[in-house]
Amino acid sequence: MRDKIDLPVVMSSKAGMTPPSDAVVTPVFLLLHPLWPLVVPVTTWRASVAESEKGVPDSLLEPLAIWVLDCFPQASLVERLIQAADGQHLPERDAVHEPEWADPIRRASELLWARAADVLSRPVPEQVLNEIAVSSGLRTNEIEEILPALGVIFAKAEFLFPHRREAAPVSPDRDEFEETLRGLAMGGSRSWMYGLLVLLASRITCDIVLPIARSVARECGMGRTLLDACDTALVSIFGRFEGFCTQAQAAIERVKPAEREMRRCVPWLDVAELASVLSLVKFANRCSLHVLPAARLKAAAIQAARAQFALLVSEDLLIRWPVSVWPDSLLIAFEAGNRRLRHLATLGSTLSRSAEYRPGLERLARHYTDASLIGLSFVERIRTVEILSMSTTPSGLLTEYLALLPPSLNAGRKKKPEVRIYRDPRPLLAL
Asked: Which long-range contacts (CB under 8 A, 24 or more apart) does 218-227 make?
């Protein structure tokens, strides 16, 4: 195994799965971030039998990442995809004919997850297992219980790990969903629990996950083990999400706005994660289940979302955008970033109040209508204002632009009188 590497921020006291403060996305972050609902501090993992059955100790993450990424044949491709995420470089593939390459970060993540699934599907060499045990402070038999379950999760990554920009709830195909859950159940109770926690943190709502999971659990004939895991996962996800939001807020507060060249490719709380928080809170209130944990989660999410949005707006105002004409890839990334800011503001407003987010969007709209941004055309500025605006009426800029357009060719023509043919009904009545 290679030398020690730096991990991103994880849900633990040592490191975390929120993006690093310098906003540099790394392959390690993309590989491990979807596992955040599972990660707990190693001290907590050792002290509680329940946590040891449904969690992954944070001390295992670093040696796991080293092992997965060691001699990775597509490492250079992943690095190039991460570099292309800011939109300053045209993609190496045609995103029109190959849509899977349209989002470089997502494509890089998929390559890493496939690598992890391949590595974890094979037996761990004894020498590697011993090195992981020494690095993580775990026993070899404990590692051998955890790694196969993680391998099952990575093998189902395309289904379990949602797109981070996904705001709307996902309605999966029922047959495909049942097949995925059966695969998790075949992996054992640990992979079943891991899968449920990841699913409850995704954009598939509880109203879909829990009934189908209970149905599959009854089919598998493992007694009440899998059924009880459904209830345990639902109880746990509120606390996991609350801890994630709390640590994200702490990481955000340590960052000071500074002049930048590009936007952050990955924020601390992305659209899908905030939407999942809102979905869980609504589910708890509607069903009168776990109302107190849901209230604590909502309070933590409000604080984190507010702090993150304020920081992102402040950073946007300090970005040194190119003064020349922007390439298509940069315009696409710029518009996607605008939509992300609008989604974050909308979700944050739903959790708290729109008055906390509207001024920030208005500041950005005024900033991007400034003539000093030479790279943006007039039409592109109008589009930016319309995306960032939280109003249902057209902006003043769009109204003025429409007034400047030449009249339609048909506007000056006189409308021909409509000719109607009236038939005399008397001959018909005579019959």
From this structure: 219/182, 220/182, 220/185, 222/185, 222/189, 225/189, 226/185, 226/189, 226/192
Alpha carbon distance 280, 205 (integer Å): 8
**Residue 257: Cβ-neighbour burial (10 angstroms; 0-12, 13-18, 19+):** middle
Q: Which residues contact 134 (CB under 8 A, 6 or more apart)?
A: none
Which one, of 357, 332, 335, 337, lies nearest residue 347 by Cα? 357
Tokens of 357: 């987010």
The dihedrals phi and psi of 214, each to the nearest 5 degrees, come to -65, -40
* pTM to 2 decimal places: 0.84
- The enclosing H or E element of 40 equals strand 39-40
Tokens read off for 398: 């769009």
Model pLDDT for residues 201-237, shown as the tens digit of each residue = 998 889 999 999 999 999 987 778 999 999 999 999 9
pLDDT tens-digit map of 133-177: 999 999 999 999 999 999 999 999 988 987 777 788 888 889 999
CA within 13 Å, CB half, 139: 6
Question: For 156-264, where are the alpha helices, taking DSSP H only?
Answer: 157-160, 174-186, 189-200, 206-220, 225-253
Q: Give the residues across from 319 on adjacent strands.
A: 260
